[in-house]
Amino acid sequence: WWLSLSMLCSVHNHFQIKNSKALKILLESINEYYQRLQIFLDNKKKIERHNAGNHKFSMGLNPFSDMTFAEFKKSYLLTEPQNCSATRGNHLSSNGPYPDMIDWRTKGNYVTNVKNQGACGSCWTFSTTGCLESVTAIATGKLLQLAEQQLVDCAGAFDNHGCNGGLPSHAFEYIMYNKGLMTELDYPYTEGECRFKPDLAAAFVKGVVNITKYDEMGMVDAVARLNPVSFAYEVTSDFMHYKDGIYTSTVCHNTTDMVNHAVLAVGYAEQNGTPYWIVKNSWGTYWGINGYFYIERGKNMCGLAACSSYPLPLV
Ligand SMILES: *[C@@H]1O[C@H](CO)[C@@H](O)[C@H](O)[C@H]1NC(C)=O
Ligand SMILES: *[C@@H]1O[C@H](CO)[C@@H](O)[C@H](O)[C@H]1NC(C)=O
Ligand SMILES: *[C@@H]1O[C@H](CO)[C@@H](O)[C@H](O)[C@H]1NC(C)=O
Predict the structure, then answer these.
(1) Counting runs of H as helices and runs of E as strands, what totals does the chain give?
(2) Which residues span the membrane (predicted)?
């Protein structure tokens, strides 16, 4: 009541309600406000209940706390099943041994800042740029910020669907055949038609490497020896509220047809006997551990080993 009264007064003061249309809009926005508040309170309860229990990860309020999972899914996740099935990948694993932990963020200037995809199912473009940014920096010593929007706008011929989804492996192929990806500076992240300019291409791909599906040790091999790796997995409702700790789930699926989000593994480690991946997300820095999350390693958790890949940079 306090909120609605003060809202009514301030809106009234500012806009002077003169007709019923304005009043209707006002009532609708008050109604929307109450719906959001209710969802927020439900989520807050869910978070508190989870944090009171015994779990490897904790939840917290974040910019998604006033959304239902159904809404979140529609705006942020891949909606249709993806054709990701590298039954036999072309990544060649060594026999190890592998270091106990690796973190490409601290090995050098190899990982760009966490970005924010906004309300668009474009996670696959951020997983792609993140990986190409890193492999290029490892090869050249120069860390570029690459253009997600070029992939959203131009990579459709390779089974990608802009804000409705796509796959890093398909995006790497686009970059290879298209002969380059521009920088974020030259091709900013705002809606539009394809505006690729060949002379402004800044990063190039000479090959795409898939890791055989469900071969999580292949991912360890690649991350330990070579570079960060793009992967996809299934996000279920609790993941939206992730705050820190090692994410595990008993409800997510683990097969290629169920993945709905793509991210970038930048390292791995182990804590109290639980091995985990260090993962860069694209939901801004107010989500998770400054935009990163940890997820249990070694169990194909939520299908994270279903379709991982990385590009070979052309430098
Ligand atoms: C999967 O592949 C089929 C056949 O190539 C295509 O029609 C469909 O759009 C693809 N789905 C996605 C999500 O890319
Ligand atoms: C990699 O996997 C994708 C499916 O995710 C497939 O379309 C592509 O042909 C594969 N590329 C190679 C080099 O095997
Ligand atoms: C998926 O999970 C089930 C149940 O834990 C397990 O039996 C199966 O082997 C897993 N499949 C893959 C591909 O990881």
Answers:
(1) 8, 9
(2) none
Question: Three-state DSSP class for 75?
Answer: helix
- In whole angstroms, how far apart are CA 15 and each of 7, 22, 27? 12, 9, 14
User: Which residues does residue 310 pair with via DSSP β-bridges, in sequence order?
Assistant: 209
**What CATH number should be reported for the domain whose range is 58-313?**
3.90.70.10
Which residue has a Cα nearest atom 12 of ligand 1? 82
42 in ligand 1 pocket by Cβ < 6 Å?
A: no
Please state the pTM of the whole predicted model.
0.91
CB 303 within 8 A of CB 234: yes
Give yes or no for a contact between 161 and 81, defined as CB atoms under 8 angstroms apart: no
Residue 306 has which token pair? 């279903």
DSSP 213: T
Q: What's the pLDDT tens digit per position in 105-122?
A: 999 999 999 999 999 999
